[in-house]
Amino acid sequence: MTFHLDKALVRKHMKTLLIGELAPHEPSFERSKNKLLVEDFRELRSTVKKLGLMKSNHLFFFLLLLHTLLIEVAGWFVLWYFGTSINTFLISTVLLTIAQSQANYLQHDFGHVSVFNNPKWNHIVQEFVMCHLKALSANWWQRHHNQHHANIRT
Ligand SMILES: [Zn+2]
Description:
The chain is mostly helical. It is built from 6 helices and no strands.
């Protein structure tokens, strides 16, 4: 629910994982967990949701994309304008490394479909960042990252 804002889409995929229903008298949490902690967590989650803290800020993501693009351009500009020397190479390397790191975090959020309510828009931006800024396959990342999250509990 944190990473996928489209609840209908989440429910659609969660249906295949449904293995049974709890009886009304059964607790809706693992028996080995502390009931008070579970209730506190649920109350905290409800409060966070009411305060709107889980809503994505589109301006933040737009500025992060712009910032990443500007750092990328600056990295190449240093080489183009000042020529190739050890100093310009090092400065360019630092700028491009920062841009690549920022692009990776940025595409991760879009890859998790956590920015826009419409998954299609998330995938379009993720593909732009992955394919054009990182020169990697968004589909490759999606497939492997979904497996990573599916296996994260093991
Ligand atoms: Zn992830």
